[in-house]
Amino acid sequence: MPPGEAAVLGYLDRSGPLTTADIAQQRGVSHQSAAKAVKELLAQGLVHAEAHPSDGRKLLLHLTPAGSGRLAEERRRRADWLGTAISEVLSSDERKTLEAALPLLSRLTTHLNGR
Fold first, then answer.
1. What pLDDT, in 10s, does the model give residues 49-99?
2. By three-state DSSP, how is residue 96 classified?
3. 10 CB contacts (<8 Å, ≥6 apart)?
4. How many Å apart are CA 13 and CA 74, to the nearest integer?
5. How far apart are CA 102 and CA 108, in angstroms?
6. Count of C-beta atoms within a 10 Å radius of residue 68
7. Please, are residues 71 and 81 in contact by the beta-carbon 8 Å criterion?
8. Which residues is 99 bridged to in the sheet?
């Protein structure tokens, strides 16, 4: 799955329904770039759109059950890929260091995302 499409599914999973403009802003990409990913996801049935409740000119995007499944599959694939790389490249001590750093990385991510 292209990274842009996976990112859109992730945003919808974490934030709930969003507009294409919301997604573009959160991803830091152009509206056209976000719209291209959204168009592909709509065509695959991974996302569905409905009229925005307060602005009929906009569409509110929702993750479908198929989209949730595809996102879970993509997350598992990426976790397996990363886990394999960690096992193959890092020594036991390096893996322990990485594990100890995870809470720090989580705090940084939370701070950077403003949550």
1. 999 989 888 999 999 999 999 999 999 999 999 999 999 999 999 999 999
2. helix
3. 71
4. 13
5. 10
6. 14
7. no
8. none
Q: 70-105 b/e with 16+ CB inside 10 Å = b? A: bbeebeeeeeeeeeeeeeeeeeeeeeeeeeeeeeee
Single out the residue of 95, 68, 28 nearest to residue 4, CA to CA: 28
Nearest to 63 by CA among 78, 43, 73, 49: 49
What is the DSSP secondary structure assignment for residue 45, as one 8-state letter?
A: T
Token pair recorded at residue 25 = 């802003």
Distance of CA 21 to the CA centre of its chain: 16
Strand partners, 50: 60
Per-residue pLDDT, 115: 59
CB neighbours of 101 closer than 8 A, spacing ≥ 6?
none
Per the listing, tokens 């939370």 go with: 110
Single-letter amino acid code for the residue at 96: K
